[in-house]
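Aim 2 progress update. The chain analyzed this quarter is reproduced below.
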Amino acid sequence: STDRGVGEFEKEPLFPGYFWDPSCEIGMEGCLADGKNVGCRFCGGGDFTTPCPASSCHFPGGEPFVPYYWDPDCEMGMLGCWADGIHRQCRYCGEYPYTSIDCPELLSAPPQGAACAFTHKTQ
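Predicted structure tokens:
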């Protein structure tokens, strides 16, 4: 709902990424990603050029202790990719065993827990 800053997808998309963007407006690229909430935004691939923030990674078991970010160049077999087990672009960095992967400046999570949410998770 718009008052909580949560998107409402029927099924969580594996690609492209998505995040809650309070600056979204009707007609902006990727906004209204869930078809219901303007602030739910697609990012990082396909027809969506908006870069994905780290908050586009979604960890079903809770936030990891290892730093991570959204890396559009991640591919199967590259160290640290698939960090969240959902998106190939979600990448661990900076701490063992990922010390060879430099972390970019990490973006904080959306304020007050705002996020896109889904009613059905993919397997």
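Residues 107-112 have pLDDT under 50 and may be disordered. Residues 37 and 78 are 34 Å apart (CA to CA). These observations will guide the mutagenesis experiments scheduled for the next reporting period.
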